[in-house]
Specification:
Blueprint lengths: L14 H27 L4 H47 L1 H14 L4 H23 L11 H25 L5 H23 L4 H26 L4
Helix pairs in contact: 1-2, 1-5, 1-6, 1-7, 2-3, 2-4, 2-5, 3-4, 5-6, 6-7
Amino acid sequence: MPRTTHPELHRTERIGWLRAAVLGANDGIVSTASLMVGVAAAGTGRAELLVTGMAGLVAGAMSMAAGEYVSVRSQADTEHADVGRERAELAAQPDLERQELASIYVARGLAPDLAARVAEQLMAHDALSAHARDELGISPGGTARPVQASVTSAASFAAGSAFPVLTALVVSRSLVLPMVAGASLVLLAALGALAARVGRAPVLRASIRVAVLGGLAMSVTAGIGRLFGAVV
């Protein structure tokens, strides 16, 4: 095989775990920090505040793990069913499947005779992979991995949630609300920048977006806490 003349670094293979990690950490910070800010604004003591934070951490991590697993498992089941159906169709009517594959390449811009030759060669090499990739849009690097997504989401949620809890633990009670909110916003901005950098996306825009949304969530819960003077 000839070597390429220039290296190309793409990030699509990271989408699965990166999405779960960023979503989990972001949700952990926003959910737990917002919960603790709302409770702090209601005037509760340090012990109650820390219990609230730990409860939010554990419950949120379990919820993220279960929700992510069910969601990605459903996607994986659908993909497996589609591939199984395609396998049966290839065994029953290979000629029609070859024509179908060729028509896909024609729609993408190949001449009909070239598309027919490409479809024939690809099916001779690995018919199921060719149809899974080009007809169903399923590639080996992009298949759903429910266990990986579940564990990644739970771990990243717990890591994100631990930050506001530890902040509340080390600062004085009078500074809990501004310190938890401020430190969480800084971490959210850093998380947005890190995710954007890993994915080769605009860093500043991602940081601002994540920080603004997190600040909005904390502002709402702080307002509710002050309004009702009770744990929310």
